[in-house]
Structures are given as structure tokens and as C-alpha cells.
Amino acid sequence: MFDTYFTVIWLTIKLATVVTLVLLCVATPLAWWLSQTQSRFKPVVSAVFAVPLVLPPTVMGFYLLLLLGPNGPVGRLSEMIGLGTLPFSFTGIAIACAVHSFPFVVQPLQNSFEAIGKRPLEVAATLGASSFDCFRNVIVPLARPGFITAIVMGFCHAIGEFGVVLMIGGNIPGKTRVLSVEIYNHVEAMEYAQAHWLAGGMVVFSFIALLIIYLVNQKAANRSIA
Amino acid sequence: MKLFKQVLLAAVFMTSHLAMAGEVSVAVASNFYKPLLQLAEEFEQATGHKVAVSAGSTGALYAQIKNGAPFEVFLAADQARPEALEKEDKAIAGSRFTYAQGQLAYWSMQKGLEAEEDFKKSLAEVEHVAIANPKNAPYGAAAMDVMNELGVYQQAAEKLVEGNNIGQTYQYVSSKTVEAGFVALSQIYVDGRVAEGSAWLVPSSLHRVLNQDAILLTDTNDVARAFLDFLQSAPAKETIRSFGYKI
């Protein structure tokens, strides 16, 4: 019993961590571009990356399954370069989860980048800072609340992910069976007591995580007023 | 009795499968998840082979299998999907069989439901009746058959509340949000009787058959074949019946 719980919780945390790290790497440049660009394609790009907010998770899971499956374009590519088929593996659910959580990471980052404005960057450039210096010593500290919100939102969204992971992962014990799917299993087996415990744990966890975001943001807000 | 059953099982399966302990991965329709866990335990005790169980809706599992899911046995909630896999060459031809037959029940948390007259009386009294979506849930379609067959559909039409699947329908009634509804007996059956409230067990002559078919998806694993043989054995059938299915 505790063995299964441990496996499930460990897998869930691993998934959320991997997804958050990958998203930070991918979403930061995109959010930066969106915050700075004057391009007329900006609305189109913004819309494309916000689509996961709208689509029902099972619908998205279904299309990702077709896309990543052995007959889909991405699936063919991944087999060609020796990665094998992605669905029903940890890599597969990580990719699906990252796609679905994308807007939750991009949007807070974009907002905080936009809030910095042009002035601090111009000043830094005048003082001779390289663009990397500028990013590390000006943008990251100023956008810190945005990064924290993005990390917590991305992590929490990946922890709570259900429809996409069930479809792409296939509910396989030890490989793709994460916490939300385990709760679903308990409910299907009418083991409501176990389901309540796991669901209760998730409520406590998410409350703490969200509390952290709001505390940090409030602190940042107070600091900027002072 | 239980010991006898175990010894018998052990004798049957130890002799035919002396191979090393293996594993079989089974994709199961959610309605049969709980019985399968019990069957898996019995199979493990008898043979030493492990069963990895993955539950989902029959439709979703079908889509996953078509797209290369690594399942070896598929226990569906209908006949259509295993049949389709067989036709599409995604399963082993000739391995399909009915492992369980669903029993429809008109269920309420109140006492007093037992016979057809009770059902008709209840139908006149209640404000809402829960059924599973008849378009994609076999039990929902069967419930429609029953009401049409008994000529009470007109009376019921305005009272129907549709659950997305049979699990949601069960939740409507068990939470008393809806006074009564058509559910699967397997959902309300514990230790050989209706655990809470009361139910009219609908005679199967009033609706389409609720056959659930199993099929083998790959012939590279002997354990998978052994598991399907086990599902058709007398002790396994007894377990299946104890969960409110006919077979």
C-alpha cells in the first residue's frame, strides 16, 4: 500500500519537476520575445500558445496521441531518431504535460517582463552591460515574482494534470500512473476513503503552493510601493 | 471453501504454467476495474504471475491500443470495440470471448424497490431519473430500451438526467441528488446483495445484451494467454458473479 503511494507520489513530483524545468527553458525566451516584439504576428503567436487553456484536456490528449503515436508525424520522427514511441512512457507524458501547462508559465513571465519596461534595460546598456549580464542582473531580479508565479503555476498544473496524462500515459503502474490518475482509479473502484486521503493531500499541497505565490507577490508589491 | 478454491486454482495453473513468474498488462474498462483487482490477486496467488492493471473508458483504451499502447489483454465494457480491434488487425483473431454480462438495476437510496410495479410507481413519483448517456454508455442505451419496451418513455422523458457515464449516474443517486436511476448492479452489489437502498433488477429480456468482451492483443506472452484461460475458469466466473455480473 505505502509502496504504491510512494511510487505514485514520486512519479508525480518527478513529472512536475521535469515539466517545470523544461518549460522555464522554453517559455522564458518566448515570453521575452512576446514582451518586446512589435511584430504584427504577436497576436497570432500569443493565441496559438494560449490554445491549451481552452481545449478540454481529453480532447488535447487525443490529438497529442495521434500526433505522437506510431502513425503520427512526431511519432514517426521520434522513431526515426531512435527515441522510440513517446506515448505510454514517462517522456511522452512529460511532453504532453509541458504542452498543456505552457500558457501557465508563459503568461506570468510575459506580464512581468512587460512590467519592467524599457528604461532599466536602456540604462544597463548605456553602462556597458552585455545582453547576458543584462538578463542575469537586471531582468531576472526585477521579474522575480513573475518567475516564482510561473514556477509554482507550472509545477502545480503538472501535479494536477489528469485528462492529458490519462490519455497519453495509459494509466500504467510505475510508469505513467500519477497522483490524479491514482485518485481516478480509487474512485472507479469505489475506494472513496483512499481517494479522499489523496485528494485531501492535494488540496493542502495546492493551498500551500498558492499561498507562497501570493505572499511573495504581496512582498514584492509592498517593496515597490516603499 | 476459499482454501479449496485456491488449491484447485493452484493445481490447474501450476501444472500448465511451470515457467518463471511473468507479468501481463491488462487494459480494463473502468466498470470492471474492481473485480479485476480481485481476479488479479487470485491469478497471482495461483500462478505467481503478476497482473499490471490499467483502467480507462472503453473508448479511450481503444484509441490508445490503436496507437500502440503496450497492453496485452483488453477487457472492454462492450463487444463493439474488441470486435473492431480484431477487424483492424490490432488484436489476435479468434481470441475474443464474453467474460461478463452486465445486469441493469433501477436503484434508489429509498427502500421498497423490488419488482416492475415498484419501478412504475417510483417513476410516477420521482422528480428526476438518472441514466447514463445513451449515446456512448451501454447501460444508458439499455435503460432506454427498458423504458421503451414497457411503454413508459413518454412519461419519463422530461425527468431524465444524463450522467456522462455509469459512474456519474451512480454518484447522482448515491449522493441523493437524484431520487433514482439506472445503474449497473455491479456498482451497488457488495457481498452478494444490494448494499444500500433498494433496486429492481431489470430482466435482461427487456433490453439489448450487455456483453463485455475480452481479447488478446499480442501472442508473444504466454502469461497473457494463461490469464485469459483463467478468466474462463469456473473459480474466476464465480468471482465475477460475486461482483454482480452474469456469466
TrEMBL record, chain A:
Pfam families assigned to the protein according to its UniProt record, in alphabetical order: BPD_transp_1
Transmembrane segments: 6-32, 44-66, 86-106, 146-169, 195-216
InterPro entries: MetI-like, MetI-like_sf, ModB_ABC
GO molecular function, one term: molybdate ion transmembrane transporter activity
CDD domains listed in its UniProt record: TM_PBP2 (cd06261)
PROSITE patterns in the record: ABC_TM1 (PS50928)
Major location category of this protein: membrane
Keyword terms: Cell inner membrane, Cell membrane, Membrane, Molybdenum, Transmembrane, Transmembrane helix, Transport
Protein origin, superkingdom: Bacteria
Record membrane topology: Multi-pass membrane protein
Residue ranges annotated for the ABC transmembrane type-1 domain, each copy included: 9-216
Any single GO CC term annotated in Swiss-Prot or TrEMBL for this entry: plasma membrane
Compartments where found: Cell inner membrane; Cell membrane
Function: Part of the binding-protein-dependent transport system for molybdenum; probably responsible for the translocation of the substrate across the membrane.
NCBIfam families: modB_ABC
Entry similarity comment: Belongs to the binding-protein-dependent transport system permease family. CysTW subfamily.
Protein name: Molybdenum transport system permease
Organism field: Reinekea marinisedimentorum
TrEMBL record, chain B:
GO biological process: molybdate ion transport
Regions that span the bilayer: none
Domain of life per record: Bacteria
An example Gene Ontology molecular-function term: metal ion binding
Protein's UniProt keywords contain Metal-binding: yes
Record keywords, A-Z: Metal-binding, Molybdenum, Signal
SUPFAM superfamilies in alphabetical order: Periplasmic binding protein-like II
Position of the signal peptide: 1-21
Positions with a binding annotation for molybdate: T58, I166
NCBIfam families, per database record: modA (TIGR01256)
Family: Belongs to the bacterial solute-binding protein ModA family.
Protein name per the record: Molybdate transport system substrate-binding protein
Species whose genome carries this gene: Reinekea marinisedimentorum
